[in-house]
Amino acid sequence: MTWVSLTEGVVMCYYESWAVYRPSYGRVTVSDLDPDLCTHYVYAYAGLDTNFRIKTLDPWGDLCEGGGLCGYDKFTGMKAHNPNLTTLLSVGGWNEGSATYSQMAASSANRAVFIYTALDLLHRHNFDGLDLAWAYPTQNGGAWEDKENLVILLKEMREALNPDGMVLTLSMPPNEAIVNQGYDIPGIVEHVDFVSVTTYNYHGSWDHYTHHHAGLYAFAEDTGDNLNLNVDASVTHLLEKSGMPPAQLVMGVATYGRCWTLNSADEQHGYYAPAFLPGDAGPWTGEKGFMAYAEICKKQQDEMWTVAVEFGCNEPFTYHMPSNRIWCSYDDQKSVAIKAQYAAEKGLAGVMVWSINDDDAHGVCHDRKFDLTWTMAETFNAATNN
């Protein structure tokens, strides 16, 4: 396979380290990853301890000590195959909360502890940089001062990483209100290489009706807040109102679906169908209201699932009737290509994949492994070269 050149576009792939514990085809180890596919591989996640030091969240999976799985070293070891690859360690994530990060960023002494320990961990395991996934400044236990303190933190992190030529990236949400409250975009972009925006999870089983969780554009029947719960609305806000340079923005694409249980098998099957319960957990990921793309496409192979696209939309949804009334919105090969084309037309730096392990990692449904991610990479680079 041909390596995707960084000069052509960023393909930033997050790897969920806990995928190593999933059963059957859901189990994806570092050894299953393709070093030639992504320009940036991001290992999720590290965390913070109460003394503001970076910490491994899964010592058995991340480290080699005591016969562990050596996740960090195997991950950065992919560079032996592809020396052009950039490997990043992501710190944060939703489960970490925001309070400890808020306290860390509020004090120069606390920031120094975090930065020193982070740099040490990166060096010991040969990472090329750090991805900050604080979820989210001013939210989730944070403080109003977080918006200003985040910029200070990034400035100091950049100064610490610069001598070794390390990369610094930031992951941020797509929600306009959260962005306005917690992110000083002009200040942030002075200090980071790229910002990846998580343009998915706009809808889910927390809504009592079906909808696409990662629609590129608004649906014709959307009203009110739902008019802004789509990729284009988020990207447009960042570029036109928040001061985000397109060349630093990496647009997220999800390789998983959000699922509901329809209230009735006899009612409508499109968007806004009544659905008060999440869909059954996927057999490999084990989370209600969620299925990896690999789980969805395997079920479509093995069972009678209907696939449809709402009028005026690009992304598919699928449902299994009437036995269990499961309904899932997701992206397929065609819709991820459209999104990659969109990112290229907007002049964005590239695409981000969450997560590489939820793609068809073992080639269960396609002739090649990681088909969605390959499709995005190929489409984006072809579009930027035209």
Automatic annotation (TrEMBL):
Every GH18 domain range: 9-383
PROSITE patterns reported for this sequence: GH18_2
SUPFAM superfamilies in alphabetical order: (Trans)glycosidases, Chitinase insertion domain
GO molecular function terms noted in the UniProt entry: chitin binding; chitinase activity
Pfam families: Glyco_hydro_18 (PF00704)
InterPro entries linked to this entry: Chitinase_II/V-like_cat, Chitinase_insertion_sf, GH, Glyco_hydro18_cat, Glycosyl_Hydrlase_18
Any one GO BP annotation for this protein: carbohydrate metabolic process
One GO cellular component, as annotated: extracellular region
Gene3D superfamilies: 3.10.50.10, Glycosidases
PANTHER family found in the cross-reference section: CHITINASE (PTHR11177), CHITINASE 4-RELATED (PTHR11177:SF360)
Protein name (database record): Putative chitinase 2
Source organism (scientific name): Chionoecetes opilio (Atlantic snow crab)
Lineage of origin: Eukaryota, Metazoa, Ecdysozoa, Arthropoda, Crustacea
